[in-house]
Protein: DNA processing protein DprA
Organism: Nesterenkonia salmonea
Amino acid sequence: MLADNVPAWAPEGTRQARADLSRLIEPGDLLGSITVSVLGAERTLHLIRSGQKPSASDQQNVGEAAESSGLTPRQRKLSEALARWRTRLAQIGDTQMLRSLGRQGGGLLIPEDAAWPRQLGDLGAAQPIGLWFRLSGSDDHDPYASVSGHLPRSGRSVAVVGSREMTDYGGHVAWETARELAGYSVTVISGGAYGIDAAAHRGTLAGAQRGHRPAIAVLAGGVDRLYPAGNEGLFKDVLRHGIVLSEMAPGSAPTRHRFLQRNRIIAALSAAVVVVEARWRSGALSTAHHAMDIGRPVGAVPGSVLSASSAGCHRLLRHTPAHVVTDAADVMELVAAEGPHIGAQAPEVIESSQRHAPVEDFFSALDGLDEAARRIYDALPVRRVTTPGRLSEIAGLPIPQIFAGLSRLERTRLVRRSQGGWGRAAPSRDIGS
Amino acid sequence: MLADNVPAWAPEGTRQARADLSRLIEPGDLLGSITVSVLGAERTLHLIRSGQKPSASDQQNVGEAAESSGLTPRQRKLSEALARWRTRLAQIGDTQMLRSLGRQGGGLLIPEDAAWPRQLGDLGAAQPIGLWFRLSGSDDHDPYASVSGHLPRSGRSVAVVGSREMTDYGGHVAWETARELAGYSVTVISGGAYGIDAAAHRGTLAGAQRGHRPAIAVLAGGVDRLYPAGNEGLFKDVLRHGIVLSEMAPGSAPTRHRFLQRNRIIAALSAAVVVVEARWRSGALSTAHHAMDIGRPVGAVPGSVLSASSAGCHRLLRHTPAHVVTDAADVMELVAAEGPHIGAQAPEVIESSQRHAPVEDFFSALDGLDEAARRIYDALPVRRVTTPGRLSEIAGLPIPQIFAGLSRLERTRLVRRSQGGWGRAAPSRDIGS
């Protein structure tokens, strides 16, 4: 097995190089991760730091990989990219960064680590250079020793996201759905923002089982700045019962560009993305869009057509392959039907799939009756009784069929005999629509 | 042209025979309409009335037609069917029925009439034997002369249906959607029931244009008994501005079986069916089911996942090809995309299709900017100004690109120059989600 031949942790030099690169190269700068994967982290960092021109063969190798990833000729120019990456060189003097983050219970996961979440590979060239993490740490605690237990398991993680401007309805549904998902031992991923994100994190924490670390917040800025500050208490709880992740190096500020890039990581870490509330133009829709791009199923919670906070969800449902989800059981169906690897371990999924009978049973209330029996039942008076002869005329069936039908109906206790006639056993509450 | 060779109205003998047959043969008794179409209405009625055994060739012809319509051997037995149909013979003595209904502004349309709604043919063997109608009549008025103008035009009629137990939300959406559909010159078809049906009829009447007859109520009982009686005022308005239809002969009571059968007629007369609110088990779902069976598009209005009155709509959206509709414009898109014959005559459909931009424009607020410009914009302070050198470091771009980007941003008025530095022209309200 491959896992036996791969050391659990990458060499520290590689980790330090990727730490520096994650500060120099902006997320979404696709030539960055392509160059790192072709030349290696150390050589890429050396080229940036030294100011050397890349060799012809380096340029050619990187250019070919970039071309096969679909980058335009302009985007493929390595020398231009190196100039771009050099602009932030002044920021990477601090070789203590990794060590000091370690004392806070944090660190940097890189693709060379055995613990690296392989789902991120679905992003292709957009795979992040590294994933900074932060746990609830203490001085005598090695964060790398426990990080694996906090990472999202493939096929067992769901993103619950939405707008910051939420309604009470959206907040309730996000909280309740996340709480129930945690009860299914699912890890719930969100973005730590106000509104739906915060409600989802809180619900997850409320539903956590003993020993289960269900909460993951993926930030757009560094894991040392828990943004927004107003969610400080929530982040403390997430750190205590889960993990905070970011591709941005410590100290980095969140920007609109980084929020949108961050959303691709939320999508890639999840087996499904659920949008609870979103306005017509909402960043949460970009998470859904990223998820569809890499083949993750997307669910959207419907709401009032009069609510602007549900307009983005309805937009997804009308114009994309997103699915209606109404509760956590629907989300589990979505994961079971389309998410990878999940069906086998999850008996509760099977149960929830059976919860919804197929659409064909519209008439199930009448299914037990054949057509003749149904017509006889319809012809029976509700409060009085009547004769088989009169039933024959009303139902349009010959007398022998009336008697046969009445005896079938009597066995199902739908009719009663009384005063020498026949009537319904219970009043009809509802005669159709 | 065929229309020139076909008399506008069928012979009165045929009409009288179908009037009688519509009283003898229960809706959904498929061998009935098959027998009528094979042997003709008069001959079928004669066989029932006379008590004669059908000839071997009659039996064979009817049996073959029934077999090709998928009826089981038991369902195909003509002699059994004749016995069934004879049970109500006592009810058809009244040859004055058609004439007295005529004085009330009513009559019977039959497939032999040029005005017969051809859409009903999509029901195959389940096509009704006739369609009783009632208009707002007066003594000097020939209802047949004006009935054509009240019938649903193919591709220009929409069913708006739902549960009787509606919420304020459902009532509002049904009323508003129907009102706007009437504004698009669409005929709105519903079932005259309490709740969503009544709200849809009322909205239609509120939105009717001068000279447009937009309201159709299809009943499960006779058109002379406007059921439910509590909607009497509404029915009067529908009769004044539209038409009431039923396959059941005058005097017939509505039964659960007939409500469910009636729903197939609503579906067949419509270019699309919209379910506004429906509980998990609701008769309105049967209308949607019938519509799908004959290839009509179905829309469902989403609502709160916490509302039992929307559970049936969400069920349709989860388990069938039903589409999310949020307003009348969405319904028009549904009709234009999938309904027959409608696109050409309907300029407002094109307009409404363009109303929703495609889902790909998630980032349209940023679309005008290339990636470099976006990173520069992100790096600009909101309330202060900064230098190009500082921007270079924050955005991770070389100085020449910073200057080029700033001048592009300045042209789009997104940035401002002030006190020798650069800042955003307007505060960022929203930095992602």
Remarks:
- Confidence is low (pLDDT under 50) at residues 339-366, 427-433 of chain A.
- The first strand of chain A starts at residue 106 and ends at 109.
- Residues 2-95 of chain A form one domain.
- Chain A has three domains: 2-95, 152-355, 365-424.
